[in-house]
Amino acid sequence: MLPGTGSPEQKAGSAESGSAKRPVTFRTAHGGLHGEVRVPGDKSLSHRALLLGAVATGPVPISGFLRAADTLSTLAAIRSLGVTVEDGGGEELLVRGRGWEGLSEPEDVIDVGNAGTLIRLLPGILAGIDRFAVLTGDASIRRRPMERIVRPLAAMGAAVSGREGGRYAPLALRGGNLRGIEHRMEVSSAQVKSCLLFAGLRAEGGTTVIDPGASRDHTERLLEFAGISVKRSPQGAPGETWVRVEPVDSFRLPAVRIPADTSSAAFLAVAALVVPGSEVSLVQVGLNPTRTGLFRVLRRMGARLEIAPDAGESSRASGPEPMGTVRAHSSELRATDVGPEEVPGMIDELPIWAVAAAKAVGTSRLRGAAELRVKESDRISGMAELLRGIGVEVFEYQDGLDIVGRPQGWPGGTVEARVDHRLAMAGAVAGLASSGQVTVDDMRSAAVSFPGFIATIESLQAG
Ligand code: S3P
Prior knowledge:
The structure is a single chain. By secondary structure, this protein is α/β, with parallel strands linked by helices. Helices cover 29% and strands 23% of the residues. The protein has helices spanning 43-55, 69-80, 116-126, 147-156, 163-166, 190-200, 218-225, 262-274, 293-300, 350-358, 379-390, 421-432, 453-462; strands at 24-27, 34-37, 57-63, 84-87, 93-98, 110-111, 132-136, 159-162, 168-174, 182-184, 207-211, 230-232, 241-245, 256-257, 279-286, 304-309, 323-329, 337-338, 363-366, 394-397, 400-404, 412-415, 437-440. A 4-stranded mixed sheet has the order 2-15-17-16. Strand 4 and strand 5 form a beta hairpin. Helix 11 (379-390) runs parallel beside helix 12. The structure holds shikimate-3-phosphate. Shikimate-3-phosphate binds at residues 44, 117, 189-191, 194, 216, 347-348.
């Protein structure tokens, strides 16, 4: 098994740090990819364990923590609120929760770096206390829409403002005296939902969030794991979902065990599917059904993908989230259509899905994915440019793409990653499956979610 650490890009710290870009060339992986890997811990859960741990009462042990640029920003943020975190530098941490009232006012601006989850979730925690805080981040963060949290938090009674009338960061916030609301989200977003659920824990009356889709439910599971009552629509039901919380005075959070990141695993699973002669096993991968949409779609495309939950995982007794092994073998893929109802369950995997679609027989269509335009970069145009850059025909729409598959492979070329970790890693995988090579202009951003990505790829090539 590979530890998944130690590559130079891990030291980059932030997607924008350092002066020199780090171009990397990925060549045809002759002989395929082979091996067993535990990719680093889940990003969504690492953020949530720290944030909820900060306002729990007493110590919260966390294992499987993702030590990457985004989640280290969250660690720094809770420390700036006076929370002690015992950190030996590995995947285990101990957060000494202080409850909301134990948090202190941060002395300086909180810099979230590139972490969208942090800048959208932390205001939900801060809205519950009478403290002043200012949050900002890198250039990508300052372009991302914030009105979606600013408006409902203001409706709950928090004093919250931001640049351009609350549309963009920096955000300034003073919380306290919240009342519960019913909020219908315009777009399915786990970040907005989680922000409001955190705020709802400190509001008078209940807080209900209605989601037009079924966004990831890590916050709901973590709250339930902490013994907090969460009412919600039946799981697995298609269409709209809803969730409701009531205020709590205090709670304890038992030890949180974080699975390997489903989204990081997705890059290696697709790499195995599209590189001939490969067989890769990904162990302890998070198998939360609100995150595994890509695996369902790949199977529909003919992917040889075996998914085996770990023994005892159905009980959830040992942690808030199920995990298991995903085994991927090289496959002949068929084109498929991905529609709006499937998008939330594979939102972060769409860049790597595009690489799988490029290898399929026929034309694949993606629709209802306009949200991708406001991620770390505009991922619709980024994916289109990536595919064109390597020699794949693609048509761009406001909310999606048509990708004309090239099952015989593609020649390769150059990819602009746009300081976006998922575009950079998708470009790398496209290089391994090319008949020539792909040069990604800058691989430093991989450190945002997958430290050790390049070292892991190299080990799988060495097999
Ligand atoms: C996340 C939710 C998603 C996802 C992001 C992580 C989370 O964002 O794209 O990478 O941890 O809640 P949205 O809520 O904006 O869809």
